[in-house]
Specification:
6-stranded antiparallel β-sheet, 1 helix, 38% strand
Amino acid sequence: MKKAMLYCCYIVSFALSITMLSCKRESIPGLSDFGNGVPENVQLLTYAGGSITFTWSRIEEAASYTVQLLSAPDSDTPIEQYTTVSGDAYTFTGLNEITGYYIRVRANFNTPENPVRGDWVYVMDGQQRGRIMPKYGFVAPDFEEPEPPPAVELQLYPNFPEGWEDETMSHLAAYDVNGVDEFPSGKWQSSRIYRNGGSTIARHPDGKYGMLTQNNQNSVMGMNFDLPYGASKLSFYVGPATKNDNNMGDFTVEYSVDSGNSWTELARYTLSDGIPWNRDFDDPSNYKEYELDIKVPVRFRFVQHSEGVGANSRWTIDEIAVYY
Protein backbone atom coordinates (compact mmCIF):
# COMPACT_ATOMS: atom_id res chain seq x y z
CA MET A 1 0.00 0.00 0.00
CA LYS A 2 2.81 2.33 0.88
CA LYS A 3 4.50 1.60 -2.46
CA ALA A 4 1.28 2.32 -4.32
CA MET A 5 0.97 5.69 -2.64
CA LEU A 6 4.59 6.50 -3.46
CA TYR A 7 4.00 5.56 -7.09
CA CYS A 8 0.96 7.85 -7.23
CA CYS A 9 3.08 10.71 -5.87
CA TYR A 10 5.58 10.21 -8.69
CA ILE A 11 2.78 10.29 -11.23
CA VAL A 12 1.33 13.47 -9.82
CA SER A 13 4.76 15.13 -9.64
CA PHE A 14 5.53 14.26 -13.27
CA ALA A 15 2.14 15.59 -14.40
CA LEU A 16 2.75 18.86 -12.56
CA SER A 17 6.19 19.20 -14.18
CA ILE A 18 4.70 18.73 -17.63
CA THR A 19 2.02 21.29 -16.90
CA MET A 20 4.52 23.84 -15.61
CA LEU A 21 6.80 23.32 -18.62
CA SER A 22 3.86 23.77 -20.96
CA CYS A 23 2.89 26.98 -19.22
CA LYS A 24 6.45 28.22 -19.38
CA ARG A 25 6.62 27.64 -23.14
CA GLU A 26 3.31 29.35 -23.71
CA SER A 27 4.64 32.37 -21.82
CA ILE A 28 7.64 32.90 -24.19
CA PRO A 29 7.06 36.17 -26.07
CA GLY A 30 6.39 36.03 -29.78
CA LEU A 31 6.22 38.65 -32.57
CA SER A 32 2.68 39.50 -31.51
CA ASP A 33 4.07 40.81 -28.23
CA PHE A 34 5.79 43.64 -30.15
CA GLY A 35 2.82 45.01 -32.06
CA ASN A 36 3.11 44.10 -35.72
CA GLY A 37 6.89 43.93 -35.36
CA VAL A 38 7.71 45.83 -38.56
CA PRO A 39 9.29 49.29 -39.04
CA GLU A 40 6.97 51.93 -40.44
CA ASN A 41 7.62 54.96 -42.67
CA VAL A 42 10.41 53.19 -44.54
CA GLN A 43 11.42 55.65 -47.26
CA LEU A 44 14.22 56.91 -49.47
CA LEU A 45 15.91 59.98 -48.01
CA THR A 46 18.81 60.98 -50.29
CA TYR A 47 20.83 59.65 -53.22
CA ALA A 48 24.02 61.07 -54.72
CA GLY A 49 27.67 60.32 -55.38
CA GLY A 50 27.31 56.55 -55.35
CA SER A 51 25.31 56.40 -52.11
CA ILE A 52 21.72 55.79 -51.01
CA THR A 53 20.29 56.80 -47.62
CA PHE A 54 16.94 55.56 -46.34
CA THR A 55 15.08 55.95 -43.05
CA TRP A 56 12.38 54.28 -40.93
CA SER A 57 10.50 54.88 -37.69
CA ARG A 58 12.04 53.20 -34.67
CA ILE A 59 10.23 50.48 -32.67
CA GLU A 60 10.72 50.91 -28.93
CA GLU A 61 11.14 47.19 -28.19
CA ALA A 62 13.46 46.45 -31.14
CA ALA A 63 16.93 45.26 -30.14
CA SER A 64 18.41 45.86 -33.60
CA TYR A 65 17.63 46.31 -37.29
CA THR A 66 18.98 44.42 -40.28
CA VAL A 67 19.25 46.25 -43.59
CA GLN A 68 19.89 44.66 -46.98
CA LEU A 69 20.84 45.91 -50.42
CA LEU A 70 19.46 43.73 -53.21
CA SER A 71 19.90 43.46 -56.96
CA ALA A 72 16.31 42.34 -57.63
CA PRO A 73 12.97 42.92 -55.90
CA ASP A 74 12.50 39.22 -55.06
CA SER A 75 16.11 38.36 -54.25
CA ASP A 76 17.03 36.65 -50.97
CA THR A 77 20.77 36.97 -51.57
CA PRO A 78 21.83 40.46 -50.51
CA ILE A 79 24.63 42.38 -52.19
CA GLU A 80 25.30 43.92 -48.80
CA GLN A 81 23.86 43.38 -45.32
CA TYR A 82 24.33 45.20 -42.02
CA THR A 83 22.79 44.93 -38.55
CA THR A 84 22.58 48.08 -36.46
CA VAL A 85 21.71 47.93 -32.76
CA SER A 86 20.24 51.40 -32.73
CA GLY A 87 19.17 53.97 -35.23
CA ASP A 88 16.52 54.84 -37.75
CA ALA A 89 18.57 55.39 -40.93
CA TYR A 90 21.30 53.77 -42.94
CA THR A 91 23.50 54.77 -45.89
CA PHE A 92 24.83 52.34 -48.47
CA THR A 93 28.01 53.78 -50.04
CA GLY A 94 30.43 52.90 -52.82
CA LEU A 95 27.63 52.03 -55.24
CA ASN A 96 27.60 52.16 -59.03
CA GLU A 97 25.72 55.34 -59.94
CA ILE A 98 23.75 53.76 -62.79
CA THR A 99 22.98 50.35 -61.25
CA GLY A 100 19.47 49.75 -59.92
CA TYR A 101 19.19 48.57 -56.29
CA TYR A 102 16.41 47.50 -53.94
CA ILE A 103 16.51 48.06 -50.16
CA ARG A 104 14.71 46.42 -47.24
CA VAL A 105 14.85 46.49 -43.43
CA ARG A 106 13.53 44.30 -40.61
CA ALA A 107 13.41 44.64 -36.83
CA ASN A 108 14.96 42.09 -34.45
CA PHE A 109 13.67 41.47 -30.90
CA ASN A 110 15.29 39.75 -27.93
CA THR A 111 13.36 36.99 -26.07
CA PRO A 112 14.36 34.67 -23.14
CA GLU A 113 15.29 31.93 -25.59
CA ASN A 114 15.62 32.65 -29.35
CA PRO A 115 15.56 36.07 -31.06
CA VAL A 116 12.41 37.00 -32.91
CA ARG A 117 12.82 38.57 -36.36
CA GLY A 118 10.18 40.75 -37.92
CA ASP A 119 9.04 40.76 -41.53
CA TRP A 120 11.01 42.57 -44.22
CA VAL A 121 9.79 46.02 -45.21
CA TYR A 122 10.94 47.44 -48.55
CA VAL A 123 11.57 50.98 -49.68
CA MET A 124 8.56 51.46 -51.93
CA ASP A 125 8.01 53.51 -55.06
CA GLY A 126 4.26 53.94 -55.01
CA GLN A 127 2.73 50.46 -55.00
CA GLN A 128 5.88 48.60 -56.10
CA ARG A 129 9.23 47.87 -54.54
CA GLY A 130 11.40 50.82 -55.42
CA ARG A 131 14.29 50.44 -57.83
CA ILE A 132 16.88 53.08 -56.93
CA MET A 133 19.84 54.36 -58.93
CA PRO A 134 22.26 56.57 -56.97
CA LYS A 135 22.40 58.94 -59.96
CA TYR A 136 18.64 59.28 -60.52
CA GLY A 137 16.73 58.05 -57.44
CA PHE A 138 13.64 55.98 -58.22
CA VAL A 139 13.63 54.57 -61.75
CA ALA A 140 11.36 52.20 -63.66
CA PRO A 141 12.14 48.47 -63.39
CA ASP A 142 13.41 48.40 -67.00
CA PHE A 143 15.20 51.77 -67.00
CA GLU A 144 18.77 51.82 -68.29
CA GLU A 145 20.83 54.97 -68.69
CA PRO A 146 20.97 55.80 -72.42
CA GLU A 147 24.32 55.62 -74.11
CA PRO A 148 25.79 59.10 -74.63
CA PRO A 149 25.63 60.26 -78.22
CA PRO A 150 28.88 59.64 -80.05
CA ALA A 151 31.22 62.60 -80.06
CA VAL A 152 31.06 64.48 -83.32
CA GLU A 153 34.48 64.85 -84.86
CA LEU A 154 34.68 68.31 -86.36
CA GLN A 155 36.10 68.56 -89.85
CA LEU A 156 38.43 71.42 -90.76
CA TYR A 157 37.66 72.98 -94.12
CA PRO A 158 40.34 72.32 -96.76
CA ASN A 159 43.23 74.82 -96.80
CA PHE A 160 42.42 76.09 -93.31
CA PRO A 161 43.71 77.42 -90.99
CA GLU A 162 44.33 80.36 -93.26
CA GLY A 163 47.61 81.96 -92.17
CA TRP A 164 48.40 84.02 -95.29
CA GLU A 165 51.66 82.10 -95.80
CA ASP A 166 51.48 80.96 -99.46
CA GLU A 167 54.18 82.94 -101.24
CA THR A 168 53.57 81.40 -104.66
CA MET A 169 50.50 83.59 -105.19
CA SER A 170 50.31 87.34 -105.71
CA HIS A 171 49.06 88.96 -102.51
CA LEU A 172 48.46 92.62 -101.86
CA ALA A 173 51.53 94.27 -100.40
CA ALA A 174 49.93 97.61 -99.55
CA TYR A 175 46.63 99.03 -98.34
CA ASP A 176 43.91 99.02 -101.00
CA VAL A 177 40.43 100.33 -100.36
CA ASN A 178 38.85 97.76 -102.72
CA GLY A 179 41.37 94.97 -102.56
CA VAL A 180 40.47 91.38 -103.36
CA ASP A 181 43.24 88.86 -102.88
CA GLU A 182 43.42 85.13 -103.43
CA PHE A 183 44.81 82.77 -100.79
CA PRO A 184 44.76 78.96 -100.56
CA SER A 185 41.42 79.02 -98.72
CA GLY A 186 39.77 81.24 -101.36
CA LYS A 187 39.34 84.85 -102.45
CA TRP A 188 39.18 87.40 -99.64
CA GLN A 189 38.14 91.04 -99.63
CA SER A 190 41.08 92.92 -98.13
CA SER A 191 39.92 96.52 -97.83
CA ARG A 192 42.57 98.65 -96.13
CA ILE A 193 44.27 95.53 -94.79
CA TYR A 194 47.28 93.63 -96.12
CA ARG A 195 49.74 90.86 -95.38
CA ASN A 196 52.70 92.00 -93.34
CA GLY A 197 55.76 90.18 -92.02
CA GLY A 198 57.54 93.00 -90.26
CA SER A 199 59.72 92.16 -87.30
CA THR A 200 57.58 94.15 -84.87
CA ILE A 201 54.17 93.04 -86.15
CA ALA A 202 52.27 90.45 -84.09
CA ARG A 203 51.65 87.17 -85.88
CA HIS A 204 51.23 83.50 -85.04
CA PRO A 205 54.65 81.85 -84.59
CA ASP A 206 53.81 79.09 -87.09
CA GLY A 207 54.27 81.51 -89.96
CA LYS A 208 55.96 84.64 -91.24
CA TYR A 209 52.90 86.76 -91.90
CA GLY A 210 49.81 88.25 -90.32
CA MET A 211 47.08 90.53 -91.72
CA LEU A 212 47.61 94.15 -90.69
CA THR A 213 44.82 96.77 -90.61
CA GLN A 214 45.31 100.46 -91.47
CA ASN A 215 45.57 103.28 -88.93
CA ASN A 216 42.60 105.60 -88.65
CA GLN A 217 40.55 103.58 -91.16
CA ASN A 218 37.75 101.06 -91.26
CA SER A 219 39.43 97.86 -92.47
CA VAL A 220 37.82 94.62 -93.65
CA MET A 221 39.18 91.12 -94.16
CA GLY A 222 36.27 89.05 -95.42
CA MET A 223 35.54 85.90 -97.40
CA ASN A 224 34.36 86.40 -100.97
CA PHE A 225 33.18 82.78 -100.96
CA ASP A 226 30.77 80.63 -98.99
CA LEU A 227 31.73 77.62 -96.91
CA PRO A 228 29.19 75.10 -98.24
CA TYR A 229 28.56 72.96 -95.13
CA GLY A 230 27.97 75.70 -92.58
CA ALA A 231 30.16 76.03 -89.50
CA SER A 232 30.48 74.21 -86.17
CA LYS A 233 33.48 76.15 -84.88
CA LEU A 234 35.49 79.25 -85.71
CA SER A 235 38.88 80.10 -84.22
CA PHE A 236 41.56 82.73 -84.87
CA TYR A 237 44.23 84.91 -83.25
CA VAL A 238 43.79 88.65 -82.81
CA GLY A 239 45.49 91.52 -80.98
CA PRO A 240 47.14 94.92 -81.29
CA ALA A 241 49.53 95.07 -84.23
CA THR A 242 52.50 96.34 -82.19
CA LYS A 243 53.17 97.26 -78.57
CA ASN A 244 52.66 100.92 -79.57
CA ASP A 245 49.14 100.30 -80.92
CA ASN A 246 47.16 101.38 -77.89
CA ASN A 247 44.37 103.47 -79.39
CA MET A 248 42.41 100.89 -81.40
CA GLY A 249 38.80 101.20 -82.38
CA ASP A 250 36.41 98.25 -82.03
CA PHE A 251 37.11 95.00 -83.85
CA THR A 252 34.15 92.82 -84.83
CA VAL A 253 33.72 89.28 -86.12
CA GLU A 254 30.68 88.83 -88.37
CA TYR A 255 29.05 86.13 -90.49
CA SER A 256 26.63 86.06 -93.40
CA VAL A 257 24.29 83.29 -94.56
CA ASP A 258 23.10 85.15 -97.68
CA SER A 259 26.38 85.43 -99.58
CA GLY A 260 27.38 88.72 -97.99
CA ASN A 261 24.14 90.69 -98.53
CA SER A 262 23.71 91.07 -94.76
CA TRP A 263 25.94 90.41 -91.76
CA THR A 264 25.39 89.28 -88.18
CA GLU A 265 27.84 90.27 -85.46
CA LEU A 266 29.32 87.29 -83.64
CA ALA A 267 31.82 89.05 -81.37
CA ARG A 268 33.22 92.51 -80.63
CA TYR A 269 36.53 93.43 -79.03
CA THR A 270 37.54 96.81 -77.67
CA LEU A 271 40.69 98.28 -76.19
CA SER A 272 39.10 98.02 -72.73
CA ASP A 273 38.85 94.23 -73.10
CA GLY A 274 42.54 94.08 -72.27
CA ILE A 275 43.64 91.98 -75.24
CA PRO A 276 47.43 92.35 -74.95
CA TRP A 277 50.11 92.81 -77.53
CA ASN A 278 52.24 89.70 -77.89
CA ARG A 279 54.76 89.32 -80.64
CA ASP A 280 53.89 85.64 -81.05
CA PHE A 281 50.24 85.72 -79.93
CA ASP A 282 51.34 83.65 -76.94
CA ASP A 283 48.81 85.03 -74.46
CA PRO A 284 45.59 82.92 -74.10
CA SER A 285 43.46 86.02 -74.57
CA ASN A 286 44.82 86.42 -78.12
CA TYR A 287 43.20 83.14 -79.11
CA LYS A 288 39.45 83.22 -79.78
CA GLU A 289 37.20 80.22 -80.35
CA TYR A 290 33.45 80.01 -80.94
CA GLU A 291 31.22 76.95 -81.01
CA LEU A 292 28.62 77.41 -83.75
CA ASP A 293 25.58 75.64 -85.14
CA ILE A 294 25.28 77.06 -88.63
CA LYS A 295 23.84 74.46 -91.01
CA VAL A 296 23.69 76.53 -94.20
CA PRO A 297 26.44 77.99 -96.41
CA VAL A 298 28.22 80.75 -94.51
CA ARG A 299 31.04 83.24 -94.84
CA PHE A 300 32.94 85.31 -92.24
CA ARG A 301 34.56 88.72 -92.12
CA PHE A 302 36.73 90.60 -89.63
CA VAL A 303 36.25 94.36 -89.36
CA GLN A 304 38.28 97.09 -87.70
CA HIS A 305 36.14 100.15 -86.80
CA SER A 306 38.82 102.81 -86.48
CA GLU A 307 37.85 105.69 -88.75
CA GLY A 308 38.54 108.92 -86.88
CA VAL A 309 40.40 107.18 -84.05
CA GLY A 310 43.82 108.45 -85.10
CA ALA A 311 47.27 106.90 -84.93
CA ASN A 312 48.27 103.75 -83.07
CA SER A 313 44.99 102.01 -83.94
CA ARG A 314 45.99 98.87 -85.84
CA TRP A 315 44.93 95.28 -85.24
CA THR A 316 46.35 92.05 -86.66
CA ILE A 317 44.55 88.78 -87.29
CA ASP A 318 46.02 85.38 -88.10
CA GLU A 319 45.39 81.62 -88.32
CA ILE A 320 41.67 81.67 -89.13
CA ALA A 321 40.21 78.16 -88.85
CA VAL A 322 36.67 77.07 -89.71
CA TYR A 323 35.20 73.62 -88.95
CA TYR A 324 31.99 71.99 -90.13
